[in-house]
Automatic annotation (TrEMBL):
SUPFAM superfamilies: RING/U-box. It comes from the Eukaryota. Residues 7-47 form the RING-type domain. Residues 72-94 are annotated as: Disordered. Keywords: Metal-binding, Zinc, Zinc-finger. InterPro entries: TRIM/RBCC, Znf_RING, Znf_RING/FYVE/PHD, Znf_RING_CS. It comes from Sparus aurata (Gilthead sea bream). Pfam families: zf-C3HC4_4. SMART domains: RING. This is RING-type domain-containing protein. GO terms for molecular function: zinc ion binding.
């Protein structure tokens, strides 16, 4: 599932995903920056050109990305909490 939730521009979990008419999705800010730098409103993946306008939000992908981000955060937090206690039971301050 992680690759489905990854923006092809920044290679990170989607933030505010939008979808183009060609079906490709991007972080809203990644697409805006791509369009600003390229001066064309084209898809970063297939290069199809689109009319100027605000692409629609991809709510299903946003929900999936938010869930993945939350899962990763919980996993990282549980690793921090479940550190093993040394056999002496006194921790690191011997």
């Amino acid at each position: 599932m992680p690759h489905v939730c990854t923006c092809p521009v920044c290679c990170d979990i989607f933030q505010e995903p939008v979808v183009l008419f060609c079906g490709h999705s991007f972080c809203k800010s990644c697409l805006q920056e791509w369009w600003r730098q390229s001066r064309l409103h084209s898809c970063p993946v297939c290069k199809k050109i689109f009319p100027v306008g605000e692409p629609p939000r991809n709510l299903a992908l946003r929900n999936l990305s938010d869930a993945l981000r939350q899962e990763r955060s919980q996993r990282a937090n549980s690793k921090d909490i479940s550190l093993p206690v040394p056999a002496s039971g006194r921790g690191c301050s011997d």
